[in-house]
Amino acid sequence: MRLLSPIIAKLHARLCPRSWSAMWLLLLVVCSASAPLANAERTLQGESCLSLKEIARSLGLSLKVIVPQEATYLEGKGIKLKFQSNKRDCMVQDVKVVLGFPATLCVGDLYISKRDYEGTLLPILLPQRFRMPHAGKVHRVVIDPGHGGKDQGAENKSMGLVEKKLALDLAQRLCALLKSKGYEVILTRTEDVFVGLEARSLFSNKQKADLFISVHFNTAPTPQAHGVETFALTSCMQVSSGRSKLEAEDRKSFPGNQWDPWNVLLGFYMQRALIQDLEAQDRGLKRARFVVLKDLACPGVLIEGGFLTNPQEAKKIQDPAYRQKIAIAIAEGVDQYHQTLKRLASQTPAA
Fold this sequence. Notes:
It is a single chain. By secondary structure, the protein is of the alpha/beta class. It has 2 domains: about 5-130, 2-Layer Sandwich (Copper Amine Oxidase, Chain A, domain 1); about 135-345, Aminopeptidase. The chain is built from 9 helices and 18 strands. The protein is globular.
């Protein structure tokens, strides 16, 4: 199998590279056939891990060491990855992606979890390796405005901002944009009513949705927190982004996990479009077992469009024009995801 198909080359060609600091370790990606990761695994802190050096070798990468034991870059043909020792955050195409386990330095080489490599990085870089959902088509999109009715959600009382109202406004804007692009769109609520969390995914399943997008605004104990983040359902045997250790819940698999690769790819496109269009702080593509994502019969994500508890960000969110920008970014994410599926489907031989 080729490392970079024309799909991936086109996918990343639009990204504008930035100059990298010379104080890092660079790995330059070259187009060549990938080799198996034979004898590349090492168990570190009870987790099966892969050496970035061996990953580079298996994918046909050339290695150039500038400053070892600092960080590792994989770069070339429009693809850029960055890892740092003892960090769960990595950068994929200038987008923060939070891994389940931190990169670990061992015998002069960085290792990452095999689960993170196969379940988070490969879906973004090589989605053609995974079975496509719904024959590669996106027709019906369910938008889920968070909260509603007795559930206010986040608030900024001094500015009169209530999440349930803002989420519905954002959902309606996104609905109009997606309909104008030819998608069929259904909302889990169209007015200020309470809808239970389990009922939202059940509604999406009954509508036979191809995508599910839950839209929210964030809150924090301190006003300093700001930025946007996108959540995909945590995979089985992975740690959600809000924790650092495996717990009993992490050993469970949910219906929504059958879409794990596509949840990740959809979330990546959403997060990238949001930070590029809004120029907002990148809080990352993260993982969580939110109730609305667990039982989905299609790929889905939950988006936090900014913090109502941050005065500067709340002022932006208060402006209808800014909420329109958020809606435009989300619609772009849907389009990018759909176009990738269509390109992949066009390259899949007929059975």
